[in-house]
Design goal:
The protein is of the alpha+beta class and 1401 residues long. Helix content is 42%, strand content 17%. It has 44 helices and 48 strands.
Length: 1401
């Protein structure tokens, strides 16, 4: 407290002068003209004269003889008043010591004004006394007060005594008392807290096994828990958390309240100083803080202390409340502080050494201050006698056995039979107990209230910087622009808060869904149970047209569900009941066909025979469900930083360094280090690093997101918009993405009679097909009908429709389906067949099977359908023809989707096999021993715009890759058809056959050594004319051998890929560059989430499966996404450059003005900050994306060579043109002896420093530069449309150019006089030959009374400004974006950067 008082006192007594004088450093003002002649001195009028004191009024000159109107008396201050009571003698100068020598003197009449024809500021006092004496015809020389004592006439030029503080006044005593009390409270609390916690900390040290230090406890996070590795269990997550317990202490609560009060008091104190400055506090300016200089110094000291206090509070805001509580054991405390370390993942890390050094320094500071540890505090609650709290939507319950908090996880069993044991439901008592441990079945998305959202938004150091800058602006007579800037900052914050709240409410809408369900509890069905009360182990009824409340497994019946909102899967999916066997239940694998997911919609239910209800067993509820985990990843994403953000940090450091230099120059030039120069220094720093920089990026993100929304692309993660502008690799699913939703049935091919025989011709007429083959195609599927619409796998629906069979309701409860074949004769009535057993298609097995009863023969047929590789593996080897693979490959090569069908005859029902035996067979038992029957063919047709989209992506320097679950040959055919693979390129397919990895030429079938083929291709590595394709088995083998990375960028088609393979494939591509993934959901979900940029083609309005989703299922949306992303990234750079230009132009402008001790008129500042910056920042974002993707991407490096060349070149040109304008001004004969003399005015009154030629010329050049700089950033039609298509910006530019040109070129007029340009005092304008102004003009603060420039100079200045514009256009448009850009592209092609990987498109 004493140190703070000394700091304030020391700063207060630094002042030595009454006013603040600024003098140019390197030249003398108005000394010689251009011919070397001494400049004549200007006249100065209405200078007040000191009071003339005499020993007798008879000595007063006649002009100053006391004379008052009737009714008034002449008083001792030299004025006439009605009463002279209380008026002191002006001759004493209120000085009790020296004044006694002049006690015999009386004043003559006061109020004398004089005019000095040749005023010299250096001899101002001497000249004034001489002229005042001459005016009243003094015959003798008058003495000077304080110097001459014996003269009969004395000029009472009283020394000015500045009022000051003793700092013992009641106001200051209150300040010192508050500071002392707060310091004392903080010290006492620390001692008290240390004593109270001593025993606890001692026991914790001795029992280190109980809790590890935070640095060790969170080591798992430090060792690379990446954003991609997010599918860990909640128990594993809890291992990376540290829990600390705290209890409320009333003394601590009181001290915390005092901290809050002191924080508010700092704001009140600053507000009081500002109010006193304007006279709003005490009724007059400086009524409280006495003088301008004293008030400024107090403000400066309080400003620094408040900034430090606020910074500390912000830094410790998450831990501050708990600091004022007593730490204790977490399991016995009222509050738990949860700590978790999070590492930031940097996309596009370019290995820049400066970035690396900055990140190293940043990491050191962040870890030292523990800013990388996420801290949250939660209140302990109780359930069933157990303590718990909820963290990130997960309930953590104290486990007494492990002596720690952790989430409860109920394992209902790992096999189908274990799950089936829960078929009888739970008791209400067990359900309540379980709910207490797990929490309610609701994904609670806590959207903050509006006040809380704003509090969270403003709790950052950026807003602290902005707030402290605004305090200076408010104080230093710049409150109008302070209000404008504050409104812009608030508007930006409001936009950010609104976008955040809208996004969170959208997620809340997706996440929270409570309904009424019918649950089996206590052995009976209970209606109207809230879905939030469901717990794992509950049996509930599934009903049509309702959303599923949790992840569940079907116990009885069949269900058709729509999963589009969760997975993006376009078509409804049929789910079946779980078999009661000992197979392992894999929710995302073989058991997916039995699993229902929370949030999906039930379209149709079919109860099992003899049942009225379709029953499901709840497996996972709340945040642990599949939907909950997706929501969790959206609500609590791993921190991600784009390289753009990393470069911005370096740019900010450079700007702050330059700001420090400019601050020092301001202190030197604008008052030689006095307090006023500090304000000018803060001004220039706040404009070099503009507080509007974040607002510019916020505006661009919101505009880009809205533009995408109009294109039907919804973005759930705004920072990914810029990232999409850097996509180099785009991966595509095939079926439903590149190709149409449905396949066209192309026919079937019957196996030959002899194993070495030739396959029969393709047959597409179902009546002409082999009957067994036709029955297999018509029955081996899971197609069902919902309201006259077929539901199921699109391939199955297409083949069923093509066979012309009819789907009928089951003829008997023990049948799953009844199907009737088409009649070959109109008079014939076909006999329906019945499906007895069905195993639906599973991706992991790539097959499905059915058992069908033919009533004509009473024989039971088993049909097995699936991929031709899988069916071949499952079929009896002796039934597989010799030319099996070759025939399948030939059809795949023609673009066919090839499935195989196998058949097995189980014999006569009731004789060879029983119904019970069929119903209890496992899948493996049913499918064993099948005989290959034939191929089923489908045509895979491209979407109408796929070829064009692929061409545009490749033309846009984007590598396109196919990752499909289909066969390799079909994938290759589609890749060739859509242009992924060029017609002239050879394709080699890798497959894993008989334990070996084999490569063969797709066209010739010849086996080859792919390494030798690649070596023989003489083209560069990134331009080999060879394309590779691999199957899923080959992919896994290459991964195991660590060779996949070697072939990755030569591989175009990845076929037969499982969902996990797709994720791994996408991650491998992400190592090579920014990777996009496009799919229609379903088995693409993992890959869509893993990619840098995932685009889900989903029928749902919003899909949470990826950052981007669209219900327009064309892959032209991928092109649109890249167009929008590149434009958004380019626009971010445009705004970034404009704000940098703003800061650098402002620095040049202000330093030039500070040198001459001039300041532009207030209206100029308002025009720049209130109109040009805000309008142009918005206008820059209005340029639409380019129509076509360019063959390159925008730079993501704000301090990269290309960006630096643009910025430094424009800044350099602008600086020399504005310097040239000043030089041009100093070459004018009419100006050289009319320079503004900063020594003659108080530079603290900055609003009076603009009525001169220097300010006028510099301001006009800079205004033109400001709005023209925005136009320069508008160039770049490579990623955005041509500059003239930005109609908003062109309109604004034309308005500003016309307005500024008129101000420069026109004679004195009302509009120009608003800006104090080419204007002057009305009498002076008349004397110059201009008509007398009819509008009001404030008197000019200039010896010559005007700043009207000659016509020739105006046109010369205007021409110089236009030349400045042309020069910057040539530099930016033709040199930077033309020559330099082409040179950089060609150079990068010849000599790629070390960290840049080249690959063919």
């Amino acid at each position: 407290m004493r140190a703070a008082a000394l700091i304030i006192a020391a700063a207060i007594f630094l002042a030595k002068f009454h006013g603040v004088r600024g003098i140019p450093v390197f030249h003398h003002v108005n000394d010689y003209d251009r011919q070397g002649n001494v400049c004549p001195l200007h006249a100065k009028n209405d200078i007040p004269c000191p009071v003339l004191c005499v020993t007798n009024h008879d000595l007063c000159p006649s002009a100053l003889a006391p004379s008052c109107p009737a009714g008034q008396s002449f008083c001792l201050d030299g004025t006439c008043q009605e009463s002279c009571e209380g008026i002191a003698n002006a001759c004493l100068c209120d000085d009790e010591v020296i004044g006694q020598a002049y006690a015999s003197y009386v004043p003559c009449m006061a109020g004398q004004l004089t005019n000095i024809e040749h005023f010299d500021g250096d001899r101002a006092a001497e000249l004034t006394l001489e002229q005042c004496g001459s005016d009243v015809s003094l015959n003798i020389t008058a003495g000077v007060w304080g110097v001459d004592v014996d003269q009969p006439l004395i000029w009472a030029e009283c020394p000015l005594v500045e009022p000051t503080f003793t700092y013992r006044e009641p106001m200051w005593l209150a300040v010192w008392a508050l500071m002392a009390v707060e310091a004392g409270l903080l010290v006492l609390w620390h001692l008290y807290k240390t004593g109270r916690e001593f025993a606890f900390h001692k026991s914790m040290k001795s029992a280190a096994v109980t809790e590890a230090p935070i640095d060790e406890k969170l080591k798992a996070d430090e060792k690379g828990v990446s954003a991609a590795d997010s599918d860990t269990s909640s128990l594993q997550d809890s291992e990376r958390l540290r829990f600390r317990g705290f209890n409320v202490d009333y003394f601590g609560l009181f001290v915390f309240g005092s901290v809050v009060i002191v924080t508010l008091l700092f704001l009140v104190f600053l507000g009081c100083i500002v109010s006193d400055y304007y006279g709003d506090l005490g009724g007059a300016e400086f009524a409280i803080f006495l003088t301008s200089d004293l008030s400024s110094k107090i403000f400066c000291v309080v400003w620094h202390i408040a900034a430090a206090w606020f910074a500390i509070v912000l830094l410790l805001r998450k831990r501050l409340v708990n600091y004022f509580r007593i730490e204790s054991y977490a399991h016995t405390s009222s509050y738990v502080q949860v700590e978790r370390r999070q590492e930031e993942l940097v996309f596009l890390d370019d290995g820049n050494k400066w970035i690396a050094k900055l990140r190293k320094f940043e990491d050191l500071a962040v870890k030292r201050l523990k800013m990388d540890v996420i801290v949250e505090t939660h209140k302990i609650k109780y359930t069933s006698g157990l303590r718990f709290f909820e963290y990130q939507c997960m309930r953590y319950v104290f486990n007494a056995d492990k002596h720690k908090f952790e989430p409860y996880e109920f394992d209902l069993g790992s096999t189908n039979s274990k799950l089936c044991e829960y078929a009888k439901g739970m008791t209400t008592e067990d359900a309540i107990a379980r709910q207490g441990l797990l929490g309610s079945n609701i994904i609670k998305v806590r959207v903050p209230t509006i006040p809380m959202a704003f509090a969270q938004e403003f709790s950052s150091f950026l807003y602290l910087y902005q707030m402290m800058c605004m305090w200076v602006w408010y104080y230093f007579q710049y409150f109008k622009m302070g209000l404008v800037q504050t409104c812009i900052i608030l508007a930006s914050a409001i936009v950010r808060v609104i976008l955040r709240l809208l996004g969170e409410y959208r997620i809340k809408k997706l996440a929270e869904d409570v309904s009424k369900v019918c649950v089996l509890r206590d052995g009976e069905w209970k209606e109207d149970i809230s879905s939030s009360d469901l717990v794992p182990g509950d049996i509930f009824e599934v009903r049509e047209n309702e959303k599923l409340p949790c992840d569940a497994v079907i116990m009885t019946g069949t269900i058709v569900v729509n999963e589009s909102s969760l997975t993006g899967e376009a078509m409804p999916i049929r789910k079946i009941a779980l078999n009661n066997d000992d197979n392992v239940y894999d929710m995302m694998g073989s058991g997916k066909i039995n699993t229902l997911f929370a949030g999906t919609t039930v379209m149709q239910i079919t109860p099992a025979s003899g049942e009225k209800r379709v029953q499901a067993l709840a497996l996972r509820t709340g945040i642990t469900s599949e939907k909950g985990m997706l929501i969790h990843k959206i609500l609590f994403p791993s921190p991600v930083s784009f390289i753009f953000n990393e470069h911005i940090k370096v740019a900010i450091c450079i700007l702050l360094l330059w700001g420090g230099i400019a601050f020092a120059l301001s202190l030197w030039w604008m008052g030689r280090g006095n307090i006023t120069s500090w304000f000018y220094g803060v001004f220039i720093m706040s404009q070099i690093f503009s507080p509007l920089l974040p607002a510019a990026f916020t505006i661009n993100q919101s505009v880009s997101a809205a533009r995408m929304r109009r294109k039907k692309i919804l973005c759930l993660d705004l920072p990914r918009i810029n990232l999409s502008g850097k996509v180099r690799i785009f991966c595509f699913d095939k079926t439903g993405t590149l190709t149409r939703e449905g396949l066209e049935f192309y026919g079937a091919v019957m196996r030959p009679d002899a194993l070495d025989g030739t396959f029969e011709d393709r047959v597409d007429d179902p009546l002409a097909m082999n009957k067994t083959l036709a029955m297999g195609i018509a029955t081996c599927h899971a197609v069902t009908k919902v309201k006259d619409q077929f539901i199921g796998n699109p391939v199955d629906i297409e083949s069923f429709n093509a066979m012309n069979w009819e789907l009928l309701p089951p003829a008997d409860p023990q049948y799953l389906d009844t199907l009737s074949p088409p009649a070959s004769d109109p008079n014939e009535k076909p006999t329906p067949v019945h499906v007895l057993r069905r195993f639906e298609f599973v991706h992991a097995r790539a097959s499905q099977s059915v058992a069908v009863l033919d009533p004509n023969t009473q024989r039971v047929h088993v049909f097995l359908k699936g991929s031709f590789e899988r069916v071949k593996h499952l079929s009896v080897e002796e039934t597989v023809p010799t030319h099996y693979d070759q025939t399948a490959a030939n059809y795949a090569r023609e673009g066919c989707y090839v499935l195989s069908l196998a058949h097995r005859d189980l014999g006569v029902l009731g004789e060879d096999i029983t119904m019970e035996a069929i119903k209890t067979m496992t899948r493996d038992e049913l499918e064993m021993g099948c005989h290959f029957t034939g191929f089923v063919l489908f045509r895979n047709m491209l979407k109408h715009d796929t070829t064009d989209a692929i061409a545009q992506l490749k033309g846009g320097d984007t590598r396109v890759v196919m990752i499909t679950g289909d066969t390799a040959l079909t994938g290759i055919f589609i890749a060739r058809q859509c242009g992924m693979i060029e017609a002239h390129q050879r394709v080699f397919l890798g497959d894993y056959v008989n334990g070996a990895l084999v490569w063969h030429d797709v066209d010739s079938g010849k086996q080859t050594d792919v390494d030798q083929v690649l070596e023989d291709d003489l083209h560069e590595e990134h331009n080999k004319q060879v394309e590779l394709a691999v199957t899923g088995r080959a992919f896994e083998q290459l991964i195991a051998q660590n060779k996949m990375r070697k072939y990755l960028l030569h591989t175009r088609v990845f076929a037969r890929m499982t969902p996990s393979d797709k994720v791994q494939c996408v991650r491998l591509h992400m190592e090579k560059g920014v990777t996009g993934m496009c799919g229609d959901g379903g088995n693409d979900c993992g890959a869509l989430r893993a990619a840098h940029v995932g685009l889900a083609l989903s029928e749902a309005e919003a899909s949470i499966v990826s950052p981007f989703s669209t219900n327009n299922r064309s892959i032209m949306q991928c092109v649109e996404l890249l167009r929008q992303g590149r434009a958004a990234l380019a626009t971010s750079f445009a705004n970034y450059k404009f704000i940098i230009f703003y800061g650098e132009c402002m620095a040049s402008w202000e330093l030039l003005m500070f040198y001459f001790t001039v300041i532009a008129p207030e209206s100029i500042w308002i025009t720049i900050d209130g109109f040009i910056v805000t309008f142009m920042t918005f206008a820059i974002t209005q340029l639409q994306p380019a129509k076509v993707l360019s063959p390159s991407r925008p730079t993501a490096k704000p301090i990269g060579p290309y960006t630096l060349a643009s910025i430094l070149g424009v800044v350099f040109i602008n600086f020399w043109f504005i310097s040239g304008a000043v030089i041009y001004l100093f070459q004018q004969d009419w100006f050289t002896c009319n320079e503004f003399d900063g020594a003659a005015v108080d530079s603290a009154r900055w609003w009076l420093l603009g009525d001169n030629f220097e300010s006028e010329v510099i301001s006009m050049v800079i205004v033109m530069q400001f709005f023209h700089n925005a136009a320069l950033t508008n160039f770049g039609s490579v990623f955005r449309q041509s500059w003239y298509r930005n109609y908003v910006l062109v309109l604004f530019w034309c308005c500003f150019f016309t307005s500024t040109s008129y101000i420069i070129l026109a004679d004195p007029n009302p509009y120009g006089c608003i800006f104090r340009i080419n204007c002057g005092t009305d009498t002076v304008l008349e004397s110059l030959g201009y008509p007398k102004p009819s509008w009001y003009i404030d008197e000019y603060n200039s010896p010559i009374g005007h700043n009207v420039m000659p016509h020739s100079f105006r046109w010369g200045l205007w021409g110089l400004i236009v030349g400045n514009m042309v020069a910057t256009v040539i530099w930016e448009r033709f040199i930077v974006q033309g020559l330099i850009r082409r040179w950089a592209i060609n150079r990068n092609k010849r000599q790629p950067p070390k960290n840049r990987i080249l690959f063919k498109l």
